[in-house]
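hi! just following up on the protien thing from before. the input was this:
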Amino acid sequence: MDGLNDLKMEKLADELKRGALHPRNLIQQCNKQVDRIESAINALNRETFDRAVARIDEWQYDPARPFSGIPYVQKDNICTTGIATDCSSMILQGFVPPYAATVDARALQAGFRLIGKSNMDEFSMGSSTEYSAWGPTMNPWDTGRVPGGSSGGSAAAVASGMAPLAFGSDTGGSVRQPAAFCGCVGLRPTYGRVSRWGLIAFASSLDQIGPITNTVRDAAHALMVIEGPDEFDSTLVQRPKENYFETIENGMSDLRVGVLDVSFADWVDTRVKESFEKNVAWFDGHAKSLQEISIKSFDMILAAYYIIAPAEVSSNLARFDGIQYGPSVDLKEEGKEVDENTAADLMDFYRKNRGQGFGPEVTRRIMLGTFALSSGYYDAYYQRAQKVRSRLRAEMDKLWTDVDVIISPTSPTPPFMLESATVDPYEMYQADRFVLMQAMAGCPAISVNGGWTEIDDDGVTKLVKSKRRNCFGKYTKRLPIGLQLTTAPFMEGNLLRAARTFEREHV
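and the predicted 3d structure came back as:
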């Protein structure tokens, strides 16, 4: 593993099978790693090692569940039975689900052991994991930089050796972008392939759960665990599970590759361009064909997404009022004065609860979404954004007749410095430009490590030694750059095969 750790699910499964490793020792190893570096990166909102080792001495290897006993981390917006799930938000502080999300239930049924809930941008709204009520997560490669978002805690946990597997949610790149910033593999499945039941909603027509791992093969294994029919999710496409390992090692000489034409735009960082140019040359020598492709509506996607997603946020988060969970003000009692902790009436009660329960980015998006849906503005904003989405889907449906895989950078920049993009939210939104079209069109995509760069604190182009330290206290020598692959809906077989072919020669 060309990274900060060597936790690979397949390797661990083989050691468990041979008896060379017991889950108790593996979980203890992960626990020691958390104790060693968690204070430096703040990847976990809570640890569950006590549950993970419960009845561990009774564990026996089961060939039907080859990954039984392997630890994993769950993003803190995915419900876990009896374990607090608060989306890194004050408004849900104290919420303990009485049920598990389908994805978590399937992981547990497969024998995986949950060791913690990961930090995230509040309600998944952010691209840096700085918008968390429990503080920011730092990039394990350089603790002065962001790990990406919103699943930054999950990516940081995998990259730093806390666990070989973590789950995240991807609404507009929230699995792929942090995976790119942390040097991991991040997979967004087709919308409708993996159940969203038990995922606390951000934008229901865009949300999807996906794995973050250290290898493409591990991502394929994780997808096979969590996908499949589920009676609790009406948006799920009822398809049988697939065996991706029938083709994953078959190479990609029969696949036609399209290079997204904006990959070398002037808003893409020079170091990302250099890395991507090398990767394009590699695909040219391994694919059936390679051609530049254009998406005419590409420049409209960012604006359309940041109308549609906040509109759904406005609806989905209206249910959280701070009464059952989180901090709550008191209603005025007869003869008592009203202060900042007392509400004069019911409307003031809701206003104050939500005002102190939601953070600034969530508040901003609720207001944007409410405005876009309001009378007089619905047609001008929300309806026009949906037309852009329909146009994008039609364009991409047409593209799939000419290419099988589209490649692009995952992010237009390498990992940026903490606090560098929070002053201007629009600047942070720009970081999502390569990862939104897949969410808007419902396509699967994967981010793999596409190269490395060394950057100083000022982000200058020349390669110099960073002045920052990684999570182990050592000076950073390099930072990862992500490569993204996209395929048509439900073509994860081709997606994983192409990604694995690239990975074999680059990692």
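The chain is about 35% helix and 15% strand.
The longest helix spans residues 378-399.
cheers
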